[in-house]
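Question (not urgent): is this output format expected?
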Amino acid sequence: MINAISQLNTFQPEEHDSITRVALLVEYCGKDFHGSQFQPNLPTVQAEIQLALSKLGLTTSAVSFAGRTDAGVNAHGQVAHFDLPEGALKNIPNLAAALNARLPNTVSIRDFHLNAHPNFHSRREAQCKWYRYRIYNSRQRSALMGADCAHASQLLNAEAMNQAAQNLLGSHFFTSFKDSSSPETNDLCTIWHIQVQKDGEFINFDVAANRFLYKMVRNIAGQLLLIGNPENSLSPESILQVLAGRDRTKAASPARPEGLSLMAIVYPSPFNYFESDTRVRQLTQLLKSTQMESPHNENLFRKAS
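Got this back:
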């Protein structure tokens, strides 16, 4: 693969009188990629999109994502943006269709918005993100199991996992669930919704928050898997001690990446370009419901631990 970033990064907005900012809604299967963000000589989602743009003859700024995803992590509702000179798309009436014709089957542009507000930034303006960790919970692995779920052969107690998860609702310092290599100094995050629910042979762990630390969801999932395993005799309340300790070494190892998917991202007006997307609507409604029902969820607004 050519180095698409170095090829396309020649575009500088100040060199043009007018620019167009484009927002993308992106879906991808992470199993073939070393994450979303460009890495030299490795397949990434960003490199594939940049390469597709170059095949269209477009010179753009680097594509910027709402958040980085690790190798093996999927996305149903990743959001990205980039700039290009005004008028560059006059001969491309449907950018999504044009890009999808040039992207591998593991990456799809589900929607796009031209002439996005010049202050729109896919990462900085994100209001809430929703991740799902999906587990195929069966004694034996499945030959038909997709790339969007991890396998756990030990039968898990989903109810105990959900009880533990509810202790994380609200604002906390999630230092214990931040990857030890992360340079992030602000570990305060607010979880608006968190739930573990059994779905036949699957268990879904859903979490929506204003921000996430590096590997935070996989680290929480790893802790919940320990609690859900009846052989460990860990109570749901044990997660409180891990949380309060603010010590990564006292928490569980991260769950495998292939079970994790970025489901949707909500943006405030006027940046809510993809509000008609089914998953975005679902997350928006969930947030409204959570705020409406806050008297019944007092720990949602308790002080940070």
